[in-house]
């Protein structure tokens, strides 16, 4: 089932600035989908258009395979800006107000407070919360009404390392409960650790989209070295399962056929009388792929 689909979605400001240009995305139910891009790449504008906050210049989008509607928006929870709550009210009272606005049952609030790890601070006023606690309370607020889809724009922005880990783990746990999550971020590590699908934007253009494994693609790179580098190079060039070989100083970087493992390589070289002094399997990172595609 398609949760969100955009078709040639475009936003132009001042007749010249194309914040989002001809964007085509399809987000399936149950995915944690990351929209990755540097600041100014069109991430927030995209989310704003799909939530009906920003009017598209052209193009269209659907929610749950239907035209946008008030009923569809009730199935979505979102945090786009800095969390805003009544500063001198505690978590319970603030969430009760949100439940009233959403016309939702407040009985779920204690469970949500427990989920986001604020049970021990439930009586503290919002103003006494750290930035990470405020963000977790905002996530609890987005979950009121049990929405099917959650949208987060830079959810770890400004947090310290501990806060980043707490929010990241919370998003993974929520995703594991079957929620569809749409996450916009410029932090590559965040997207790689949380999301199973990703779209890469640059200056409003879609550079790549698909599962993280599809985006990274290709075989891992195997780094090897031995005391006699020329002998190692000669033997590797004769092995039928080695598909690519490059020299990088004292290290030889190679690719192999998909069915071949590093153990197979090590054994084949040992049988040829070569004992490796270095062997490392280097998988391509999302950071390397992102920099390569946006450079």
TrEMBL record:
Transmembrane regions listed in the UniProt entry: none
Keyword terms: ATP-binding, Nucleotide-binding, Transport
Keyword Transport: yes
Residue ranges of every copy of the ABC transporter domain listed in the record: 4-228
GO molecular function: ATP binding; ATP hydrolysis activity
SUPFAM superfamilies: P-loop containing nucleoside triphosphate hydrolases
InterPro entries: AAA+_ATPase, ABC_transporter-like_ATP-bd, ABC_transporter-like_CS, P-loop_NTPase
PANTHER family: ABC TRANSPORTER, ATP-BINDING PROTEIN
Family: Belongs to the ABC transporter superfamily.
Listed name of the protein: ABC transporter ATP-binding protein
Organism: uncultured Aureispira sp
The organism's taxonomic lineage, starting at the top: Bacteria, Pseudomonadati, Bacteroidota, Saprospiria, Saprospirales
């Amino acid at each position: 089932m398609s949760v969100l689909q955009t078709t040639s979605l475009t936003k132009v400001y001042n007749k010249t600035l194309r914040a989002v240009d001809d964007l085509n995305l399809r987000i399936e139910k149950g995915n944690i989908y990351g929209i990755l891009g540097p600041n100014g790449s069109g991430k927030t504008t995209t989310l704003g258009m799909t939530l009906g906050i920003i009017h598209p210049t052209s193009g269209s989008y659907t929610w749950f395979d239907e035209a946008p509607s008030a009923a569809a928006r009730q199935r979505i929870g979102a945090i786009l800006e800095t969390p805003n709550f009544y500063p001198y009210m505690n978590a319970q009272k603030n969430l009760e107000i949100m439940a009233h606005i959403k016309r939702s049952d407040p009985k779920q609030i204690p469970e949500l407070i427990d989920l986001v790890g604020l049970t021990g601070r439930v009586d503290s006023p919002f103003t006494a919360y750290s930035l990470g606690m405020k963000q977790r309370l905002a996530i609890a607020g987005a979950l009121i009404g049990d929405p099917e889809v959650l949208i987060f724009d830079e959810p770890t922005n400004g947090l310290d390392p501990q806060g980043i880990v707490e929010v990241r783990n919370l998003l993974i746990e929520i995703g594991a409960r079957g929620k569809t999550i749409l996450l916009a971020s410029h932090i590559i590590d965040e997207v790689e650790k949380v999301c199973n699908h990703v779209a890469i934007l640059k200056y409003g253009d879609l550079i790549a989209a698909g599962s993280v494994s599809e985006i990274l693609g290709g075989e891992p790179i195997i780094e090897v070295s031995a005391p006699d580098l020329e002998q190692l190079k000669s033997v590797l060039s004769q092995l039928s399962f080695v598909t690519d070989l490059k020299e990088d100083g004292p290290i030889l970087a190679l690719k192999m056929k998909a069915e071949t493992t590093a153990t197979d390589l090590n054994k084949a070289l040992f049988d040829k009388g070569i004992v490796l002094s270095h062997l490392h399997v280097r998988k391509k990172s999302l950071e390397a792929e992102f920099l390569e595609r946006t450079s």
